[in-house]
């Protein structure tokens, strides 16, 4: 296998899905299609929420940053995997591995936080509509998004620092298509990975707190929805909120299963499947579930596709991007 001799150096081998070249080409093709779809969907959302003056409310401001996170997250892991498969070269340098761990853990943590903020925004909009403009004023939204990005960066720094402080004394073979922390821990043959477990436990508590906050927000939302006299109105809100809650729960549960389950020396297909569920699918599906099903987003997209100019009053959120 190409790059095997390099495992004794500072780099790693990413074994990924198969060592058969035909299956590697299939994997690369599927990942390329998924990557292009995810990038296109997120780029469209970023573009129209920036250009359309009618999409400058807090909800679309948060959607824009969710798409930025998703676009970045896809770019951290998928292109490297595609390149390795096409080139039949599984090698990744030590520095590239560090960057992958840092950016992936930072962006994944930030995504959990931004989805929590978005659920609170929906709670205020539906349950406290008369106070919405006061509670979700532009300055508070800007500070919330700043806190999301900073918190993600801190999480990524903690993960990266503790992960690469351990001694990798086994064969540097990662049974994954990217440098994933649980797989890196398997390369340690001592107890010096306890720092990583401590960071994982702390961030798991934070993620659980976010899950509780999201659950409470949607619990209040559903309670309010049930009091809506119009069946059509209830159906519309349910069709919007339920997919949000499902995707958030799915992303959190699959990530928790991968990062919190005990490490073992024998890789399984379940590890690879779980990794796709929390790395590739959410950034690809979020544009459809959170945004492109929205009528206002569809109208703005039609304007883009038809080449029509965006008109209307510019709002302060245009300057908060």
What does it look like?
α3 (94-127) packs antiparallel against α5 and α3 (94-127) packs parallel to α7. The N and C termini lie far apart (46 Å). Residues 1-8 and 312-321 have low confidence and may be disordered. 71% of the residues lie in helices and 2% in strands. It has eleven helices and three strands; from the N terminus they run βααβαααβαααααα. A three-stranded mixed sheet has the order 2-1-3. By secondary structure, it is mostly helical. The longest helix is centred in the middle third of the chain and has 34 residues, at 94-127. It has a single domain, classed as Rhopdopsin 7-helix transmembrane proteins (Up-down Bundle). The radius of gyration is 21 Å and the shape is globular.
What descriptors fit this protein?
321 residues, 3-stranded mixed sheet, disordered N terminus, 11 helices, mainly alpha, 71% helix
Biggest sheet descriptor: 3 strands, mixed
- Output mean pLDDT: 81
C-alpha Rg (nearest Å): 21 Å
Q: What is the strand content?
A: under 5%
What is the approximate shape?
globular
Find the CATH topology.
Rhopdopsin 7-helix transmembrane proteins
Helix segment tally: 11
- Number of discrete domains: 1
Mind telling me the CATH superfamily name? Answer: Rhodopsin 7-helix transmembrane proteins
CATH class: Mainly Alpha
Strand order of the largest sheet: 2-1-3
Instruction: Kindly report how far apart the N and C termini lie.
Output: 46 Å
Order of helices and strands: EHHEHHHEHHHHHH
CATH architecture assignment? Up-down Bundle
- Which percent range fits the helix content? over 70%
Q: Tally the beta strands.
A: 3
What structural class is derived from the secondary structure elements? mainly alpha
Uncertain segments: 1-8, 312-321
């Amino acid at each position: 296998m190409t790059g095997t001799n390099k495992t004794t150096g500072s780099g790693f081998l990413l074994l990924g899905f198969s060592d058969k070249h035909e299956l590697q080409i299939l994997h690369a093709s599927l990942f390329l299609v998924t990557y292009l779809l995810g990038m296109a969907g997120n780029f469209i959302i970023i573009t129209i929420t920036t250009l359309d003056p009618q999409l400058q409310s807090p909800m679309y401001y948060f959607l824009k940053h969710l798409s930025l996170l998703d676009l970045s997250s896809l770019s951290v892991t998928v292109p490297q995997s595609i390149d390795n498969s096409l080139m039949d070269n599984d090698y990744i340098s030590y520095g590239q591995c560090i960057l992958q761990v840092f950016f992936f853990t930072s962006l994944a943590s930030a995504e959990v936080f931004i989805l929590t903020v978005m659920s609170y925004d929906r709670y205020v909009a539906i349950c406290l509509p008369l106070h919405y403009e006061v509670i979700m004023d532009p300055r508070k939204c800007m500070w919330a998004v700043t806190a999301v990005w900073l918190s993600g960066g801190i999480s990524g720094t903690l993960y990266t620092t503790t992960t690469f402080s351990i001694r990798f004394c086994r064969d540097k073979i990662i049974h994954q298509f990217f440098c994933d922390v649980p797989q890196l821990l398997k390369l340690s043959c001592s107890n010096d990975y306890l720092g990583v477990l401590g960071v994982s436990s702390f961030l798991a508590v934070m993620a659980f707190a976010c899950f509780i906050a999201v659950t409470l927000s949607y619990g209040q939302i559903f309670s309010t929805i049930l009091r809506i006299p119009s069946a059509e109105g209830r159906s519309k809100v349910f069709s919007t909120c339920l997919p949000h809650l499902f995707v958030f729960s799915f992303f959190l549960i699959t990530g928790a299963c991968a990062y919190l389950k005990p490490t073992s020396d024998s890789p399984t297909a379940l590890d690879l499947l779980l990794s796709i569920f929390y790395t590739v699918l959410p950034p690809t599906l979020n544009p459809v579930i959170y945004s492109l099903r929205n009528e206002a987003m569809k109208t703005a997209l039609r304007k883009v596709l038809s080449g029509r100019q965006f008109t209307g009053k510019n709002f302060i959120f245009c300057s908060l991007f």
